[in-house]
Write a structure and sequence with these properties.
The protein has a single domain, classed as Diphtheria Toxin, domain 1, CATH 3.90.175. It is built from 5 helices and 6 strands. It has helices at 5-12, 58-70, 97-102, 116-127, 168-174, and strands at residues 16-27, 52-55, 80-94, 132-136, 143-147, 157-166. Strands 1, 2, 3, 4, 5 and 6 form a 6-stranded mixed beta sheet that branches. The radius of gyration is 16 Å and the shape is globular. It starts with a helix and ends in a 7-residue tail after the last helix.
């Protein structure tokens, strides 16, 4: 895939930092929480690089999975597994909302799904060798950590700390996040 050279230059100029902390990931009950996705999403095109979507807050992960599952018809009602993961990643790029705007991501469109511009940005960040991206969550007032597992070196780590069953429908209803069926 060819990348926009201006975008690559702008992203390469941004500082990279180490992320060493705890994140949260909501999954269906049968999914390995450390399994990468190739199905696309906000920060990667379908069949692009391997991606692992996580949130810096438990509620952010619940808001993300609640949004996506509420779009399905029929809407799943089974509980989700909420995993707490310990992550150490050494080349993480952080984007704030002002960065997103400067990179051509309209604020009004950020809550949408599979945005071509954010997918271009994510693919470029992975191409530059970054192992992670910290970006604002579109569903909750927190940041998400998007990992590129194939870029994580031997000194990086990713492990499950805890897992719990959560009734996502009740949580989303309590937080007024569900549209009427």
């Amino acid at each position: 895939m060819l990348h926009d050279t201006d975008l690559l230059d702008r992203l390469a100029a941004l500082p990279k930092e180490t992320f060493d902390g705890t994140v949260f990931r909501g999954t269906r009950q049968s999914l390995d929480p450390l399994a990468s996705s190739y199905s696309g999403g906000r920060w990667m095109r379908r069949d692009g690089a391997a991606v692992l979507y996580t949130s810096l807050e438990r509620e952010g992960a619940l808001a993300e999975i609640s949004f996506h599952w509420s779009q399905l018809d029929p809407r799943p009602t089974r509980p989700v597994m909420m995993h707490t993961l310990r992550v150490v990643a050494h080349r993480t790029l952080k984007l704030v909302r002002a960065d997103l705007k400067a990179l051509g991501v309209p604020e009004a469109a950020y809550g949408g799904i599979n945005l071509p511009r954010t997918q271009e940005i994510g693919a470029a960040i992975e191409f530059l060798g970054c192992d992670g991206l910290i970006a604002p969550c579109a569903r909750w007032p927190c940041d998400n950590l998007i990992l590129f597992p194939d870029r994580m070196g031997g000194d990086a780590s990713l492990e499950i700390v805890t897992s719990e069953v959560v009734d996502w429908v009740a949580w989303a209803t309590d937080h007024d996040l569900l549209k009427s069926p």
